[in-house]
Amino acid sequence: MKFSEYVQYDGLGLAHLVSTKQIHPSELLDIALQRTQQVNPKLNAIIIPMYEQAKQRASQQRSGTFAGVPFLVKDLFQEYQGIPTSYGSRALKKCNYVPDFNAEIVNRWENTGIVTFGRTNTPEFGIKGITEPEAWGACHNPWNLKHNSGGSSGGSASAVAAGLVPIAGAGDGGGSIRIPASYCGLFGLKPSRGRTPWGPQFSEAMHGAAMQHILSKTVRDSAAMLDAEQGPEQTSLFRIEAPAQKYSDIIQQAPKKLRIAFNTQSPIGTKVSKDAIQAVQHTAKLLESLGHIVVEDHPKIDGLALAKDFVTTWFSQFSYMQAQIKQQYGATDQDFELDSIALAAFGAKTTATEYIHTLDNWGVYSTQMNIFFEQYDLYLTPSTASVAPKNGEVATPTWQKPILKGLLKLGKAHYLAQGKLVEKMVQDNLSWVPFTQLANVTGLPAMSVPLYWNQQGLPLGSQFIAPFGREDRLLQLAAQLEQAQPWMPQYQNIQL
Q: How far apart are CA 101 and CA 103, in angstroms?
């Protein structure tokens, strides 16, 4: 098999070739490694190779839904026993953190028979919507190497879009599956709170806002892997009812006639590009042609207030994580990026009362979405406010850095997060990606579907949010959209 043939298959397609003995897993891995050797120096998608382990596994008898399919895991919360893990940070890279366990999500992927051959690039601790960690360098977008692949699952998205693998591990705490899916032209589903596991080291992440799944080229790969992942474990704090039938079977059925609300305005009052508006308008017309009802409307939620509550929780959680790493591994501030130190300083000043108030607000937003979904089946927005930014375009301004350093030295960095400055900080941080946090805060399932490429050949996804536990509705619609406007041929346009 040549790469030109390999890239035309999704994960289930390659697994079928293996199960019918048309190809051996070792041959598939060889193709993946050859492609990696050719293009990863340009992409910087894979940062920690696992090539020897992969060759050994590929030589063994494989079984499962994705038996023999080359795979990659994200270098964040997807621990693989005996493999160096950095979370995108110099702190863990420097101390050579090597876990002595597999994350449960990794175990469930391994049970499908995949062959994992590397860990993918991610921003430091996943705290940004771009992948440019100082520890490893920027991850480039296969559609245009001058642009970023997004974050925090940027390395996985870049690798899938470039054809290194058909599927790869990803995670989403504020949009980190849907953002890189949008920027790299992939299908990306964030499951409902509690759908996939977080053990053994955690019972949940960020009150269930963060969930793990994959990035894929096809809907059926995402559905099949969700079948393998879903369900609680011993450590699970949140437990969700299992679907009545397999997602792989559900997508064989056309969705009912859906009533879908759409909105293209930024919930935090920031600019939305013409590309993002055109992407949603195109999707709305496609939905109407398929018989669905599309209405311009939005939930009665103060988007800026929700964003503030999101970043308050996010920064506070990160502050705790940074403190734990310092304690366990002897790391100092010099081992973290300046932005990370500043965010942790903001988070450390959040009082218990403020934190609980924020979580109470999360409940209010969930209630408002429940009310909204009494009228609509789904909510459609752009996945991102624009196509992927260029590398270096989303960065702390040079003039701000000495101010931040000075305030940190005085222990006053949290002053930047007071009063109106909070709003500016929220808008600066989330202006590129203002649409995704709603689903994380409310624990709702959401997906980015690749239906639009601009005149420069850069993709931009359409985001759909569904009621709690209704991944089935999202996947059914995604499969219908994929059939109506197949996007797999687009990957043949990538030239690296």
A: 7
